[in-house]
């Protein structure tokens, strides 16, 4: 193994000024309501970012493992998962599953993750298990996306404690705003007690049906509630979006010319701009991995 050259005050290399590496963006897709598009949004955003040259880690934090299934990965064949990282402290790098997509890694999930809520209840500092697990891995990625479960339990709290930004997907239906106040309260609580850097980067409206006045009404209500946080992109209700996971593909791969694919490309562009995401580059990433190696 190559060893790093030690520099001294008389070494010219020690006088070179190296710009600080941009911080890795850690983004949680969170909403305690189910069926609002968290998994669809996190999977398609991860694929879109990877296609643009970003190095991305997608964490499946939901015991249902839908993000894992969306990539065509058989959960029964997963050796290590998010559960092992949180409960048994298996290194993230050891638990990553191959997605066959350049620049995109996946930390998979299986149903056993549901037991983590109970098994961690007596563990000190249990809310920071994911944050600590990611500490030695962030330097390898431009962005880490976390697909949260439809609850406000310990798994979601771990995601919010590890993240710096939150995307809140909201379905364009009558009950969309129900429980939103509870989510905001939870986010504020995590921000005050566990993660002062946490912030809502935006609200993403999903499953919009332009044929109904209800969808437009819900969008108007959310825009009134989050006037400066709602994304301009609105994801339409689409059969193609629902079909794509059954083929182990994101909509950007399954039908890149579909309305859903176009919407997620537009959303990803907005997200990149709002967070000022940058590509760290393969050379810089290799140097960081060498420094982190034992």
Entry keywords:
single chain; 294 residues; alpha/beta; Rossmann fold; seven-stranded parallel beta sheet; 13 helices; 7 strands; 38% helix; 15% strand; disordered N terminus
What does the overall shape look like? globular
Cα-atom Rg, whole angstroms? 20 Å
What is CATH's topology name?
A: Rossmann fold
As for the number of domains, it is 1
Name of the CATH superfamily:
P-loop containing nucleotide triphosphate hydrolases
Largest sheet: 7 strands, parallel
Order of helices and strands: EHEHHHEHHEHEHEHEHHHH
Number of separate helices: 13
Cα end-to-end separation: 10 Å
**DSSP strand count:** 7
Give the overall average pLDDT: 88
Q: Which runs of at least 5 residues are low in confidence (pLDDT < 50)?
A: 1-20
| Largest sheet: spatial strand order | 3-2-4-1-5-6-7
Q: In the CATH hierarchy, what is the class?
A: Alpha Beta
Helix content: 25-40%
Q: Could you tell me the strand content as a percent range?
A: 5-15%
| CATH structural architecture | 3-Layer(aba) Sandwich
Secondary-structure-derived class: alpha/beta
Can you characterise this structure?
The chain has 294 residues and is of the alpha/beta class. The protein has a single domain (22-286), classed as P-loop containing nucleotide triphosphate hydrolases (Rossmann fold). The protein contains 13 helices and 7 strands. The protein has helices spanning 38-51, 66-70, 82-87, 92-95, 116-119, 129-134, 154-162, 180-193, 213-225, 239-243, 251-254, 259-275, 282-292, and strands spanning 25-29, 56-60, 104-107, 143-147, 165-171, 199-208, 230-236. It has a 7-stranded parallel beta sheet, sandwiched between helices. β6, α9 and β7 (230-236) form a beta-alpha-beta unit. α1 (38-51) packs across α12 (259-275). It is globular. Residues 1-20 have low confidence and may be disordered.
């Amino acid at each position: 193994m190559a060893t790093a050259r030690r520099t001294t005050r008389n070494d010219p290399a020690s006088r070179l000024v190296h710009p600080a590496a941009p911080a890795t963006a850690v983004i949680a897709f969170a909403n305690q309501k189910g069926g609002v598009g968290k998994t669809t949004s996190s999977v398609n955003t991860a694929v879109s970012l990877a296609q643009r040259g970003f190095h991305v880690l997608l964490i499946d934090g939901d015991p249902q493992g839908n993000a894992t299934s969306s990539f065509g990965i058989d959960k029964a064949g997963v050796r290590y998962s998010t559960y092992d990282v949180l409960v048994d402290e298996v290194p993230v790098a050891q638990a990553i599953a191959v997605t066959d997509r350049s620049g995109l890694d996946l930390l998979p999930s299986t149903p056993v993750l549901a037991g983590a809520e109970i098994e961690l209840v007596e563990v000190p500092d249990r809310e920071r298990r994911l944050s600590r697990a990611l500490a030695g891995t962030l330097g390898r990625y431009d962005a880490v996306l976390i697909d949260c479960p439809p609850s406000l339990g310990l798994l979601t709290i771990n995601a919010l404690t590890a993240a710096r930004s939150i995307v809140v997907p909201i379905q364009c239906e009558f009950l969309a705003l129900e429980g939103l106040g509870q989510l905001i309260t939870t986010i504020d609580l995590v921000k005050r007690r566990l993660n002062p850097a946490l912030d809502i980067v935006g609200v993403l409206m999903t499953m919009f049906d332009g044929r109904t006045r209800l969808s437009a009404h819900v969008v108007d209500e959310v825009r009134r509630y989050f006037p400066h946080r709602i994304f301009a992109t609105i994801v339409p209700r689409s059969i193609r979006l629902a079909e794509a996971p059954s083929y182990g593909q994101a909509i950007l791969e399954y039908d890149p010319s579909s309305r859903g694919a176009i919407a997620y490309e537009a959303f990803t562009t907005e997200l990149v701009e709002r967070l000022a995401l940058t590509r760290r580059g393969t050379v810089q990433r290799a140097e960081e991995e060498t420094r982190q190696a034992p």
